[in-house]
């Protein structure tokens, strides 16, 4: 498939006289896509019912005439101020009951019926007007669901919707009381109408209650999005998408993705490194101008799965951003590298955010492809280079990787509900396993948690998947692949209760987790032969073979036939030792990669990238700092 480039543009930020020159310049730079519209509500409807779409018609016309394809975003992430007068209770309340008010964006509660109707209305206006516009070649719903901590809301609208969600799920209040163990602390309810939201309790609420609320909140995001997609599809055949964020895990992206044609995400490697990777300070210094070498790739693989193969980078960092604790400039070459890395993982398009830096408002310190004075910024030069390279490049097509890693948002909710030790979280465990595999030169597919067919994979990993339905246990026990589970895999039932027989209770696998403990992260628990468990470990019983022990002699990793259980949160060395040994066993070649060097295999080539600030060696030759190397296979 031919890969493409694009940008994000805000015609409403610039005088109309500038649009044509902008469009021409985008096309000349080799861009195909331009996303517009997603924050423009106050200019489209300045007063209730006062529709002013002419300028939008005109801007689409101008962009289309220059040969660009438009991605049209629905503007529901930024409801205008007057809408709050109409629906004062549409804003979300945080867990302390404080309103998350007007003056930035995402100021709405997903459960508010009045806002849902406003969303339907504005989306229908967009879809009716532009559904068959030849220049509108794709749609985006809203903008970054869940960003700025907006998935959970504690309003009365959320409470009512939560009660009916619980009723649908449990049927009777007795069933709910039993499932949650509400006999504990006399928490039993007499009816669904008595159940509150799990905030503002004296001490911690029942984890079953919290997990249910997290699942409910996730479903609210999915149903909000689904409604927009349904309306768009009444009028348009163009594909629908949503731009997800990095490491936002409060709603199930797979469920939202099921209603979309394409998953996209917003990739800000330097912002993330400061803010979301969870890296040491030394690592942050080393990669301050490049980003973490695995964080982007992880999300590329994740969103490829969310989009069932179809995915884009909708926003690519173009230079310094404004929102991280520190906002350095990327090393020259990184804006090209990030694009090529995305293509190597199957991105159909990479769009830089944003076209021209805005001299006003919140993001005035955020770079664009152009400076505020209209001069080229470095991102434009690098994008041009990518465009030239794409013209000359053979098509990049994605192939199935030999290794599958399950990502389960529901497990993330469960870990967040009950981390058991400060800082322990599901994302980190899955990401640690992913990083270790990548540092061995391996390509990985991320799979959704309801996958049951693992054929074609040599290794299948489901670490930390707290609740594992029985049919998945059976599928894993029966697959030909070698399966790695633990820590905490299958540690709770569907309602967040410890199951008996004790976990993991896998078919034909005699390993039982007898006791668990969390300890301070500065008290690593060393393994014999190298590496440690950090923060959490489990004591195992059973007749399976012990393949690695802790220095104190206790079992750390046990195995029976093609299933391996890891009894703790491993550090890099621990995971690498296990994966090197397992790859040898299943016949996968590994290469220990230096520093910031990583690779991904496509159908015809292996694409190498160097996140390091110095040139490095790869098995196929030297790679420059921030360089990309194409190895023909
Ligand atoms: C994204 C968002 C954009 C812009 C950008 C700045 O999260 O979708 O609208 O705010 O960040 O980096």
Written description of the protein model:
The chain has 633 residues and is α/β, with parallel strands linked by helices. It folds into four domains: 327 residues, TIM Barrel (Alpha-Beta Barrel), CATH 3.20.20; 51 residues, no CATH class; 184 residues, 3-Layer(aba) Sandwich (Rossmann fold); 36 residues, no CATH class. The chain is built from 18 helices and 24 strands. Helix 1 packs parallel to helix 3 and helix 8 packs antiparallel against helix 15. It is globular, with a radius of gyration of 25 Å. The mean pLDDT is 97. Bound molecules: beta-D-galactopyranose. Beta-D-galactopyranose binds next to loops.
Please name the defining characteristics of this protein.
633 residues, TIM Barrel, Rossmann fold, seven-stranded mixed β-sheet, 18 helices, 24 strands, binds beta-D-galactopyranose
The CATH class of the largest domain is identified as Alpha Beta
Q: Summarize model confidence as the mean pLDDT.
A: 97
From the coordinates shown, what is the CATH architecture of the largest domain? Alpha-Beta Barrel
Main β sheet profile: 8 strands, parallel, barrel
What is the count of helical runs?
18
Low-pLDDT regions:
none
Topology, number of strands: 24
Number of domains: 4
What is the straight-line distance between the termini?
A: 18 Å
Superfamily (CATH H level) name of the largest domain: Glycosidases
Q: Determine the structural class based on helices, strands and strand pairing.
A: alpha/beta
Helix content range: 25-40%
CATH topology value of the largest domain: TIM Barrel
Give the overall silhouette.
globular
């Amino acid at each position: 498939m031919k890969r493409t480039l694009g940008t994000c543009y805000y015609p409403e930020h610039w005088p109309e006289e500038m649009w044509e020159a902008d469009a021409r310049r985008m096309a000349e730079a080799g861009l195909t896509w331009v996303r517009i519209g997603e924050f423009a509500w106050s200019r489209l409807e300045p007063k209730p019912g006062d529709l002013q779409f002419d300028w939008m018609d005109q801007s689409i016309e101008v962009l289309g005439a220059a040969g660009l394809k438009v991605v049209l975003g629905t503007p529901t992430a930024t409801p205008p101020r007057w809408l709050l007068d109409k629906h004062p209770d549409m804003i979300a309340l945080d867990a302390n009951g404080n309103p998350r008010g007007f003056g930035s964006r995402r100021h709405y509660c997903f459960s508010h019926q009045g806002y849902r109707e406003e969303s339907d209305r504005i989306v229908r206006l967009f879809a009716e007007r532009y559904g068959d516009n030849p220049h509108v070649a794709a749609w985006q719903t809203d903008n970054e669901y869940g960003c700025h901590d907006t998935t959970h809301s504690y309003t009365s609208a959320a409470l009512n919707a939560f009660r009916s969600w619980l009723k649908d799920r449990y049927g009777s209040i007795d069933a709910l009381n039993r499932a949650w163990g509400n006999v504990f602390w006399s928490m039993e309810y007499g009816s669904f109408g008595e159940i509150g939201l799990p905030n503002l309790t004296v001490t911690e609420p029942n984890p079953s209650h919290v997990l249910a609320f997290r699942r409910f909140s996730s479903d609210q995001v999915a149903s909000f999005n689904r409604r927009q997609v349904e309306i768009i599809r009444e009028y348009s055949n163009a594909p629908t998408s949503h731009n997800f964020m990095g490491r936002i895990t409060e709603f199930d992206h797979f469920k939202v993705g099921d209603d979309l044609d394409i998953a996209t995400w917003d990739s800000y490697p330097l912002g993330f490194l400061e803010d979301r990777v969870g890296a040491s300070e030394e690592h942050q210094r080393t990669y301050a101008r490049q980003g973490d070498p695995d964080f982007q790739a992880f999300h590329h693989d994740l969103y490829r799965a969310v989009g069932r193969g179809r995915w884009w980078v909708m926003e690519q960092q173009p230079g310094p951003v404004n929102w991280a604790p520190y906002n350095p400039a990327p090393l020259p070459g990184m804006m090209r590298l990030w694009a090529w890395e995305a293509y190597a993982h199957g991105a159909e398009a990479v769009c830089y955010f944003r076209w021209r830096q805005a001299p006003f408002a919140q993001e005035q310190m955020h770079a664009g492809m152009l400076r505020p004075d209209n001069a080229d910024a470095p991102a434009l030069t690098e994008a041009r280079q990518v465009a030239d390279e794409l013209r000359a490049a053979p098509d990049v097509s994605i192939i199935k990787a030999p290794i599958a890693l399950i990502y389960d948002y529901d497990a993330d909710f469960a870990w967040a509900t009950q981390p058991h030790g400060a800082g322990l979280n599901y994302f980190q465990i899955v990401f640690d396993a992913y990083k270790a595999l990548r540092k061995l030169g391996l390509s990985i597919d991320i799979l959704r948690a309801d996958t049951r067919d693992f054929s074609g994979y040599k290794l299948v990993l489901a670490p930390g998947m707290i609740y594992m339905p029985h049919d998945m246990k059976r599928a894993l026990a029966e697959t030909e692949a070698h399966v790695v589970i633990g820590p905490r895999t299958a540690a709770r039932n569907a309602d967040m209760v410890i199951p008996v027989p004790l976990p993991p209770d896998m078919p034909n696998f005699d390993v039982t987790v007898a006791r668990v403990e969390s300890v301070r992260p500065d008290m690593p628990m060393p393994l014999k032969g190298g590496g440690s468990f950090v923060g959490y470990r489990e004591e195992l019983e059973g007749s399976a073979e012990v393949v690695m022990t802790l220095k104190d002699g206790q079992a750390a990793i046990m195995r029976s036939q093609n299933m391996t259980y890891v009894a703790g949160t491993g550090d890099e060395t621990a995971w690498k030792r296990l994966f090197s040994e397992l790859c040898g066993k299943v016949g996968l070649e590994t290469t220990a990669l230096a520093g910031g060097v990583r690779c991904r295999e496509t159908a015809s080539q292996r694409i190498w990238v160097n996140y390091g600030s110095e040139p490095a060696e790869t098995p196929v030759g030297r790679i420059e700092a921030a360089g990309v190397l194409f190895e023909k296979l």
